[in-house]
Amino acid sequence: MQFNAVIDVSSIIWDEADFDSNKHHYYNLLKSISHFLEKLVQEKPIILMRDELLIEMSQSFPSNQIPNDFWYIVEQVYSFLANSESNFISHPSDKTPELYSIPNLIKSYYNEAVKDEIDYLLSHLHIGEDENIYFTFEYLWNSHKNLKTQLGEIAKTYETIIVDKQLQYNNNLTELDEFFSKLKPIFEHYEKHDKSENKTREAWEKSDNKKQFISQLTCYNGVDNVRPQEILDLRYPERFGNHYYGYDSDNEVYITFMLTRLNIFHAFDEYDENRIPDKVRKHFNK
Q1: Distance (Å) of CA 231 to CA 59, 170, 186, 256, 257
Q2: Burial of 104 by CB count in 10 Å (0-12 exposed, 13-18 middle, 19+ buried)?
Q3: Taking the C-alpha atoms of 78, 80, 85 and 91 in order, what is their torsion angle to the nearest 10 degrees?
Q4: Do the strands 46-48 and 4-7 form a parallel or antiparallel pair, or are they unpaired?
Q5: pLDDT in tens, 61-92
Q6: Which of 43, 167, 234, 250 is the most buried (most CB within 10 A)?
Q7: Other Cβ atoms within 10 Å of 266 Cβ, number
């Protein structure tokens, strides 16, 4: 499943008046936000957000004041925004008149710049064709339904994950845990990519039919999937058709992960670096 993650802005830009009146709720919220950010770093989804909104986040409460009790979450937010930059994608600064969301994502306490950014975001969601998943939190979400945008009689609904909502069948798991567990790409080895002297880079370089060459998966030890799965977990986050790309730093070779079924991928060494998208090479500094 290819999707863009849309983060509830009110989880990063707080209502200062509500915070002063309900600090106990924000203490609970902090743990959930921290877990959420850690999950995003780990899973590396594509995040839909403009640079202008990132700047507003860093200049709004609580990031602009760093309350004594919350300094660590502010530092975590800064670290996340800085270290996840390559996972963010932007969208145009276009507004669609009379478009609104249910519930209303434009909070009264936002400044005008943030309100504009929410308008741009909603317009992009409503007009675009991408799959977008909205992530929010129980204390901030005044609805039991999915986010919806409405323009006249045309409505669009977006799957909404309440990050810290406990699952009824397992109180140790949240909606966030369940969501990513279903999406996590899993490596499964194909025998045709077993190691062989006929499937090495040297054999490929000598081959007269490089395009149809079947390469080995050098990082697979023939026993377990640990190392290939690690590389898959650290892959470039965007999927290209049925392919993900990773880099095996031990053997200095790119790896193509090809969709087998559902969320199962097999893999092989990619010796022809011209097949590797430029942004993948840039991501791995190659």
Answers
A1: 36, 30, 11, 10, 10
A2: exposed
A3: -90
A4: parallel
A5: 888 876 566 677 777 777 777 777 778 899 99
A6: 43
A7: 19
